[in-house]
Amino acid sequence: MTILADDLTVINRFPVGDPAAEPTPDSHISVDRLTLRTILLAELEEVTRFGAAFTHFAYLPGGRVEAHFADGAVQEADLLVAADGSMSRVRHQFLPDARVVDLGVRLIFGKTPLTDEVAAITPAESLDGFSTIVGSGGRFMPLAGHRFRRDPRAAAAELGLGLEFTDTRDYVMWVLGTPDDVSGLDGAGLRDAVQERVADWHPQLGEIIRRVDPATVRTASMRTSQPVEPWPSGPVTLVGDAIHCMVPAGIGAAVALRDAALLTRRLTEARDRGLPLVEAVHAYESEMLRYGFEAVAAAAKQAGLATT
Fold first, then answer.
1. CB contact burial 190-208 (16+ within 10 A = b; e otherwise)
2. What is the CB-side half-sphere exposure of residue 149 using CA atoms within 13 A?
3. 3-state SS track over the chain
4. Of 81-95, 119-133, 148-162, 252-266, which range is least confident?
5. Are 112 and 267 in contact, with CB atoms under 8 Å apart?
6. Which terminus of the chain is more exposed, N or C, with fewer CB under 10 A?
7. In what order do the strands lie in the sheet with 54-59?
8. Higher-confidence residue: 292 or 150?
């Protein structure tokens, strides 16, 4: 993790994770979310539904739960897992007192194709891990390069998987944080807005923005969650941003993946030992709430935000 000034001077650089661990080829690995999503959905088409918004859930006798959707569909299950992001409708119903704070900062995301020309103007520290550029007036910009080790299409073909990937180009991911309201702009308009707001930064940064694919540019509000007290475990639980959303720090998606792995492990252990599902959910939630909100606090500290 590297902190850079807006003239690309290195302010601080520190390892993430165990500082005593020896670097490995995977020390700086990054994962493209769209590619991962395509892989995770492989062979699940028959059990995956799209296009119907979740509206609410209801508890059923016997400890089960049913989810209701805007198209009138109802799905009954042993466990409902909320993975619906920082504005989670499941959390709003399940934990109405859980607070997610809008910090009054707009985030503008973009992906610039990582050509040889772009690699030459991208800070080396941004191609070797995760970096954040800190400017004046509340502006900041996380910046990180992503290079595919292999062409996902070729790898999938070798495995006999007929996966269709939307984009497999290497790229530089950037996110501008700004207090300005940029709502109502399309991708090209957002690109221009970012260029205007970094015009006094190092010119290489403006050039990276200029070369962005406008189709990848979008905006969102920066939010962070506040710790919640444990609740009685049951047939509804939460993962990722739905429970512990945090400011951009290069760790949010990794913590969500940790949630998913831990929940899977606890459910499998309970099944193999013949334990009630609720015990697995409780074991998961007890651990997740601890490390999840530790990550929220760490991300806030990195961004210079006070937490309560």
1. bbebbbebbeebbeebbeb
2. 7
3. CEEEECCCCEEEECCCCCCCCCCCCCCCCCCCHHHHHHHHCCCCHHHCCCCCCEEEEEECHHHCEEEEECCCCEEEECCEEECCCCCCHHHHHHCCCCCEEEEEEEEEEEEEECCHHHHHHCCHHHCCCCEEEECCCCCEEEEEEECCCCCHHHHHHHCCCCCCCCCCCCEEEEEEEECCCCCCCCHHHHHHHHHHHCCCCCHHHHHHHHCCCHHHCEEEEEEEECCCCCCCCCCEEECCHHHHCCCCCCCHHHHHHHHHHHHHHHHHHHHHHCCCHHHHHHHHHHHHHHHHHHHHHHHHHHCCCCCC
4. 148-162
5. no
6. C
7. 54-59, 65-69, 74-77
8. 292
